[in-house]
Amino acid sequence: MMSFASFRGQWNLMEPGNITRISKFLLLGFSERPELQPLIFGLFLSMYLITVFGNLLLLLAVSSDSRLHTPMYFFLANLSFVDICFTSTTVPKMLWNIQTQTKVITYEDCITQMNFFITFAGMDDFLLSVMAYDRFVAICHPLQYMVIMNPRLCGLLVLVSWVTSVLHSLSQTSMVLWLFFCTEVEIPHYFCELNQMILLACSDTFLDNLVMYFAAMLLAGGPLVGILYSYSKIVFSIRGISSAQGKYKAFSTCASHLSVVSLFYCASLGVYLSSAATQSSRSSATASVMYTVVTPMLNPFIYSLRNRDIKRALKRIVGIQCYKNQSSKG
């Protein structure tokens, strides 16, 4: 049983005079050296513009070509939209801070950024799992594909992904609202990441860490297990195909998705496992770039370069635009 002295000591730590809710944080970014700021600004601005332009182009290609109105491309279009939102929650604020030479982010903006970041990260996770299930049905049950993956089921899968991601984000953000920070907190990151916020709090964070890692295991591990199960069935089914051409055709439909899954999970799991083991915040911030910026930037290229349907739709869009420009000049 807790003694009166220890209880009193904990109560004193919680007095308003000792702990107050601060109104702002400082995002330290990648480096505090002034000569590196233009290089960092140019690099991240380029990656952000490529991400937005590439994913918007992919969205336009899927929406404008009726031959791409299938479950696989429906999920791909949703992934492109989520990737734009995912990157937009972190990079513009960092670019603004570099441009204005300030590191300040208000408490409200930090909580809002964290909420949207967790939501879109969860959506990325769930959509990759749903796309793996789509490939499983297409390869293992090709004759029943259009019956199983009907529009109602596709819409329901995306809706459930959104609802689960939003509820998970609200639960995690609500925990942070109960944390206290003793002084003006310097976050050694370029955005308000949940893990870093819990590490920097001066109140008891045992329950927060417990809930955070349990939710990560459940909501990240669950879809990962689903992806691994789907691809184990896919591999078993491909092995049963007699012709080498048939095997190659079946595997080629999964290659792009496998590449994106590998990038996303290797980068995100690497960041959280390394931060938990080493507590190196700077290295964690650098590693986070892989799944927060690089992966969303590469997704349109991975899916379009190996996909003839996407390339045909993009050529059609570019051809129409060129024709309009020539007509206007004529």
What does this structure look like?
Putative odorant or sperm cell receptor. This protein has one domain: Rhopdopsin 7-helix transmembrane proteins (Up-down Bundle), CATH 1.20.1070. 77% of the residues lie in helices and 3% in strands. The protein is built from 13 helices and 3 strands. The chain has helices at residues 4-13, 37-64, 71-88, 91-100, 107-140, 145-148, 151-177, 194-200, 206-219, 221-239, 244-278, 281-305, 308-329, and strands at 24-27, 104-106, 185-187. The protein has a 3-stranded mixed sheet.
Strand content: under 5%
> Element order, helices and strands?
HEHHHEHHHEHHHHHH
Tell me the overall shape: globular
Q: Find the CATH superfamily.
A: Rhodopsin 7-helix transmembrane proteins
**The CATH class:** Mainly Alpha
Oligomer: single chain
* Percentage of residues assigned to helices: over 70%
Domains (count): 1
- Label the CATH architecture: Up-down Bundle
Supply Rg.
23 Å
**Strand runs, count:** 3
Structural class: mainly alpha
Average pLDDT figure: 80
Distance, first to last CA? 88 Å
- Uncertain residue ranges: 1-19
Which strand order do you get reading across the main beta sheet? 2-1-3
Q: Note the total helix count.
A: 13
Task: Give me the CATH fold name.
Answer: Rhopdopsin 7-helix transmembrane proteins
Main sheet specs: 3 strands, mixed
Subcellular location: Membrane
Keywords: G-protein coupled receptor, Membrane, Olfaction, Receptor, Sensory transduction, Transducer, Transmembrane, Transmembrane helix
Domain G-protein coupled receptors family 1 profile: 54-303
Transmembrane segments: 39-60, 72-91, 111-133, 153-171, 210-229, 250-273, 285-305
